[in-house]
Write a structure and sequence with these properties.
Helices cover 27% and strands 34% of the residues. It is of the alpha+beta class. Helix 1 (2-15) packs parallel to helix 5 (238-249).
Length: 283
């Protein structure tokens, strides 16, 4: 009972006394920057590290890099060419259509853009969440980088989205429980990101392999303001209380794990509506 009370008090601090929809804007945890005495972290049980080849702290490790090691990253710059300026969408469209099996398209991306369903897994919380009837606003972003690299045989395009809004009309959280059926809670979720930069890397310059692309996302705001119904966590079940607490306190990590999958949808939607349609159906 004491554990339940502690968890509930934590939720009460986060959610407040009222039970109406609330706005959450959690503070960003400060990162460690330019700390010359930053020690190597303690390793998990069963993991060993030969410290004879690693300096005493991470700053020494960086300072200990030789000029040849510094230049290793620069080798990726050697083959870069920019066949189009980032603001010349017609040139970028022509490059895609000439070097890939796609048809030029001229946009814009629908605003809002509708998506039927999306599911994400948070194994560290024993939690799965699924959104239905999702709308995205702000997909018509700005290309901030476009180049090809003949040495690596890849094309890179970076897209920045500003004030990107995600509205999940039906948002289901499924709390997995050991030896018992899961608990399912539903609500709505509305979140707006100040700025996202989506980067896609497509291999094979002679015949762009869109289906083998790599995508990653940088979020300038790891703790975006969002609204959620606090009734979602009104239960005496300890799994839901603990999972709900950790879900709300771990927003930056949740976002990182969610972007791992959803960022593919965001940038491929933009390309296939506004640049070149490869004929892939988006889900």
């Amino acid at each position: 009972m004491k554990r339940l009370l502690c968890l509930w008090l934590t939720l009460e601090c986060i959610l407040g006394q009222g039970l109406g929809p609330i706005q959450l804007n959690l503070p960003t945890s400060p990162g460690i920057v330019n700390n010359p005495s930053l020690p190597l972290p303690d390793l998990p049980s069963g993991v060993t590290l030969d410290r004879s080849i690693v300096p005493g702290n991470l700053a020494d490790l960086v300072r200990g890099l030789t000029s040849s090691e510094d230049g290793a990253a620069n080798e990726y710059e050697e083959g870069i060419e920019r066949p189009c300026r980032v603001f010349d969408l017609n040139c970028i469209r022509r490059y895609f259509s000439t070097h890939g099996k796609c048809k030029e398209v001229y946009g814009p991306v629908p605003d809002p853009l509708y998506r039927a369903q999306s599911t994400e897994h948070l194994p560290r919380l024993n939690l799965t969440y699924t959104g239905y009837d999702i709308t995205y606003r702000g997909e018509n972003g700005k290309i901030e980088e476009f180049y090809i690299n003949r040495k690596t045989n890849r094309l890179l395009l970076a897209l920045q989205l500003r004030n990107f809004n995600v509205l999940l009309d039906k948002f289901y959280l499924r709390f997995q429980r050991r030896g018992r059926e899961p608990v399912v809670r539903s609500t709505t979720l509305n979140v707006t990101y100040a700025a996202l930069t989506l980067t896609i890397i497509i291999p094979n310059l002679k015949d762009l392999q869109f289906d083998k692309s790599e995508v990653f996302t940088f979020a300038e705001d790891a703790n975006p303001p969002f609204s959620i119904d606090p009734n979602l966590f009104l239960t005496a079940d300890p799994t839901v209380l603990q999972g709900g607490t950790e879900f709300l306190l771990g927003v930056p990590i949740n976002e990182q794990e969610g972007f791992f999958k959803d960022s593919i949808y965001y940038i491929t939607s933009y390309i296939q509506y506004a640049i070149c349609d490869f004929g892939y159906k988006l889900f």
